[in-house]
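User: structure tokens for this one?
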Amino acid sequence: REEVARLVETYRQSANEMKPEQAIAYVDDLVLNVRKHFERYLGTELSQEVPEFGSAPTLDRIISELSSYLQSIVKDIETRDQSRSDDMVERLKSFALDHISELSLNLDMAAESVHLSPRYAGKVFKRITGTSFASYLNGIRIEHAKRLLTGTEQPITTIAQSVGFSNVNYLYTLFRKSCSMTPRQYRARRPSEVEK
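Assistant:
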């Protein structure tokens, strides 16, 4: 958005020194080039209709229409980027759920599944969810462990491994942090108390 404001201001300064016909031709050329650039970036055509700058009665009106047009393109791109990011995060979450029992499951592995670099995937994941992928992964592992603790009689070491923890002590540490009790204490509670 700041770049759009700078572009419009640059146009205003240049257009002040031009004849009206030149200013209109300049803005038409500018918009065509900006549009091509964004379409290459997106890999698809833009839906915004190009305004008729020649019908604008004043330079200020041309600048206002140019600014509105460019802002609508930026908004469209942001919406598309958000949609892509949301989709990518959902695929990372789905991958994590599908592979929860794998001890080696981490951001690198999940990012590879969606064909992204771990750094970029982690950055987008944190921006969209507000939490790191590792924290998310630990959270779903703890939730899965809770279900197994109350729904089965499996030993806690087996549960730890089945939810992706190679070290039962780490499960205990995270469980205490998340639930303020150990897995054994959680299991010992009556089911009606667990739901509260």
